[in-house]
Amino acid sequence: MTALALISTGRPSPAAVNAAAASFAALMAKLDYLSASDIDQVRRAYRFADEAHLGQLRNSGQPYITHPIAVAAQCAEWKLDAQALMAALLHDALEDCGVSKAELIERFGPQVADLVDGLTKLEKLAFNTREENQAESFRKMLLAMARDVRVILIKLADRTHNMRTLGDAPRSKWSRISSETLDIYAPIAHRLGLNGTYRELQDLSFRHLHPWRYGTLNKALTRARGRRRDVIKRVKTEVEAAFAAAGIEVTLDGREKTLFSVYRKMDEKHLSFAQVTDIYGFRIIVRDLTTCYTALGVLHQLYKPMPGRFKDYIAIPKINGYQSLHTTLIGPFGTNIEFQMRTEPMHVVAESGVAAHWLYKASQPQSEASQRLGSQWLQSLLDIQHETRDAAEFWDHVKIDLFPDAVYVFTPKSQIMAMPRGATVVDFAYAIHSDIGHRTMAAKINGEQVPLRTELRNGDVIEVITGPVSNPNPGWLGFVRTGRARSKIRHHLKTMALTESQDLGEKMLAQALRAEGIEHLPAEDDSSARGLWERILRFSGNRNRADLLTDIGLGKRIASIVAKRLVAILAESGHRPDALLMSRERFTAHESVHQGALLIDGSEGSSLQYAPCCHPIPGDEIVGYLGRGEGVVIHTEDCAVAKRLLHRDSERFIAVEWSDEPSRSFETDLLITVTNGKGVLARVAAALAGAEADITHVEMQQESTQDAVDLRFTVAVDNRNHLADVIRNVKRTPSVLRVHRAKPGG
């Protein structure tokens, strides 16, 4: 049962019974689009629900059955099918009335029972201000939506009626229910194109969240309506006359901004009520698409348009399928008035969004015009759901997508793409396809090369350049805007990190086993070794071999301890360690290290990190620290940080050595003291570039008035020999007094 219901053991009064019957009669009057057999099914569901809710009253004192009838009536306004109407009537029966799902399947079929079951699960979701609860609840709601969008449509109808009757509920519940509606249900209604429901939910939430502000603003709007009645009447008369003179048949509806949208505009732009000028507007519904543009011309001849206030959502529809022409004109006495022009089918979609599919089916059974409405957003959420296992992270992604302010851009083949405002080139790449996003290496906007973090603007033509070996950069997470891109990047990075950690763990365990006198790591697919791996997994507590190796690579388990256990198990089966191998592998200069050296070449990925405190490069004497959960961290042997760690945590150090042929360059710091003068920074940078050292970062001493200043460069070099060449090249530069590699930790 909803939070707004009360249980009563007494039977309702005859007057209440008559009220419920009259309410159901009003519902039946709306079902003329259904067949006779469908109406019979709806009537059967009503009788069942009426009997199930017998004796239950709402806070208002009305029979509880009036609530399911009102929900079904809203669904009938959207022309939902008979199954949805039956589910709307039965949506509280499953949980509140002791009715089982099996009984619903038997009486009304599996589809209706599934809809009711989905709604019952949603009823149990108590959205909480605590982020993690809200996140998990929203995840469950999405799963229900994904199975059948009718679930969320019925839920929105249910929430709308509850908000309409919220005044009957205890005042202590107003704030929680209204906030939840404003934060979650209204945005979902907007994304599904249910604009009428969206506006109503916003206004009802505003009324109960801020009753005093709502009342004050309502009085101000009523007074303004009275003052401007003559203006609106004059505009209506003049517009109707202009269209009659042009021979265009139109339906003209006056409308005014909702109280919530007026309040939000005042709040966001710090305006007084008197400064909000575009409170009034007109909606013009015309016969066909061409007439929309003709009507626009008629209006622009009648009144002067405001520059920059024309929007063509017909040529470029909104993400939720909305289509209209919008223009703001300066009417009589300088009053700003917005006009919207659309056809009747566009109007249906504008007000009903994804529900327009059923409206079309009711009037045109063969039409598929609205099948795709809302599907893009739902698919986007499903993609995020699939790749995001953490509920709070999922909610973080989805909140972005619930409040879009779209920009419209083009692919090189002139396909229009709608992106949230603030979206970047990387967001665009992931919107096209996740593989294109993963492989993005550069981009062009309107033919010009741009950084990947460049924000998109309306009308941009974007070309994404991909590379076969490119991979997502963790830095992208700092600027991407869409939840889809963020979840795809994180998922890929996690998958990559786990794979790299597993490879590193396997290498480390093999090295540790060699130090114990075992030549090779037992293979997983070897039948004789299967029992061995089962025993070692019971010892470690991991689910499988891959998990164990990943934990070793991440530093969650010590390779030497696992290796010793493996050797002990092998010894039980008569497998003896090779004494010669053991003595050779254990011979090392590092007394604190108990296993063979790990060869590194820079290709290990995120499973192996190079300490920023000392920036080791090939040729340096190095040690490896097995950080807890962060893989191996490489330090120079004389690094002050490494020495402190060795003193405190020596068993977590492993021997590491550089490979003879490192696969990439490595960063290190140079401290360069120069004579302060014009152009000195450029000369030093040129010297570094001349020695083929890439500059990744530069810092300058603050006291720029002194004769000599220190410049700190972070440069990428191949090895110590390359670094020596770089230092020599810089020393020959005029104005350079001294240059040396920054000391570890300094």
Summary tags:
single chain, 746 residues, alpha+beta, Hypothetical protein af1432, Beta Polymerase, domain 2, Ubiquitin-like (UB roll), 5 domains, six-stranded mixed β-sheet, 16% strand
Give a quick summary of the entry:
The N terminus is likely disordered. The chain has 746 residues and is of the alpha+beta class.
What is the fold's blueprint, element by element?
Blueprint: E1 5-7, H1 14-29, H2 36-52, E2 56-58, H3 66-77, H4 82-90, H5 93-96, H6 101-108, H7 110-123, H8 131-147, H9 149-164, H10 174-191, H11 195-209, H12 211-227, H13 229-246, E3 251-256, H14 259-269, E4 280-286, H15 289-302, E5 304-305, E6 311-312, E7 325-330, E8 336-343, H16 344-352, H17 356-363, H18 375-387, H19 391-402, E9 406-410, E10 416-420, H20 425-432, H21 434-439, E11 440-445, E12 448-450, E13 462-466, H22 483-515, H23 527-540, H24 545-554, H25 559-572, H26 579-586, E14 598-600, E15 608-610, E16 622-627, E17 631-636, H27 640-648, E18 653-658, E19 666-675, H28 680-690, E20 694-700, E21 708-717, H29 720-731, E22 736-741
Parallel strand pairs: 4-8, 14-18, 15-17
Antiparallel strand pairs: 1-2, 3-4, 5-7, 6-7, 7-8, 9-10, 11-12, 11-13, 16-17, 16-18, 19-21, 19-22, 20-21
Structure write-up:
The protein is built from 29 helices and 22 strands. With 746 residues, the protein is an alpha+beta fold. The protein folds into five domains: 205 residues, Orthogonal Bundle (Hypothetical protein af1432), CATH 1.10.3210.10; 146 residues, Beta Polymerase, domain 2, CATH 3.30.460; 116 residues, Roll (Ubiquitin-like (UB roll)), CATH 3.10.20; 167 residues, no CATH class; 76 residues, ACT domain (Alpha-Beta Plaits), CATH 3.30.70.260. Strands 3, 4, 5, 6, 7 and 8 form a six-stranded mixed beta sheet that branches. α3 crosses α9, α7 packs across α9 and α8 packs across α9. The longest helix has 33 residues.
